């Protein structure tokens, strides 16, 4: 009797799963494809002699300036939350800050004491006075002054260097998530917030994440 009841329960579960998969595989376990919109921060340019220097990078490229700053000064930012100096193999160098931070938002300057920059297990937390992701502002300038990059044993990796003020801008990433894992999605927008349309429904699909990965994989094989 118990065995028959157990078999019946298993059968019911299998029927439910089969029905869910056959009727709409993308709605499995209650998941439904949906649009997702995220707001982020990327470096846009450096400020030299009071002028914005984009270094000739096309505006549509929102990643290149981050790479240039990393290559030239050895530092990377995670949105407006963290800053770190990558060492490799999952480890980071230490950063010595010599000056208070100066942040300019909409023409107003804010000072953040360097003592407020807290070191966590891997990087430094930035408690900026204004988080523009929570405002209608699309940009800010951050001047972190002079820094020195040091290894954990005290060895100087990069000597004391003045980092030019950096212009950061808000970016928006709008995707249509196709599966429950979030790995299969269609990109509808990935760019600067200032260019984001007031009506997102006017956006058209740019590319699919899976197709883009396959394309990159094929190109990497050709280059070997």
What would a concise description of this structure say?
The protein is an alpha+beta fold and 224 residues long. Helix content is 21%, strand content 39%.
Question: What is this structure's SSE topology?
Answer:
Blueprint lengths: L1 H22 L10 E15 L2 E3 L10 H10 L2 E3 L3 E7 L2 E7 L3 E5 L2 E5 L5 E2 L4 E2 L13 E5 L2 E5 L5 E7 L3 E12 L7 E8 L14 E2 H14 L2
Antiparallel strand pairs: 1-2, 1-13, 3-4, 4-5, 4-9, 5-11, 6-7, 6-10, 8-9, 10-13, 11-12, 13-14, 14-15
Walk me through what this model shows.
By secondary structure, this protein is of the alpha+beta class. It has three helices and 15 strands. The chain has helices at 2-23, 64-73, 209-222; strands spanning 34-48, 51-53, 76-78, 82-88, 91-97, 101-105, 108-112, 118-119, 124-125, 139-143, 146-150, 156-162, 166-177, 185-192, 207-208. Strands 1, 2, 6, 7, 10, 13, 14 and 15 form an eight-stranded antiparallel sheet that branches. Strands 3, 4, 5, 8, 9, 11 and 12 form a seven-stranded antiparallel sheet that branches. The longest helix is centred in the first third of the chain and has 22 residues, at 2-23. It starts with a helix and ends with a helix.
By DSSP (H or I, 4+ residues per run), the number of helices equals 3
What is the molecular shape?
globular
Poorly predicted runs of 5 or more residues: 18-25
Helical amount: 10-25%
What radius of gyration results from the CA coordinates?
A: 24 Å
Mean pLDDT: 88
Helix-and-strand structural type:
alpha+beta
Amino-to-carboxy terminus distance: 64 Å
User: How many strand units?
Assistant: 15
Major sheet details? 8 strands, antiparallel
State the order of secondary-structure elements, H for helix, E for strand.
HEEHEEEEEEEEEEEEEH
| Beta-strand fraction estimate | 35-45%
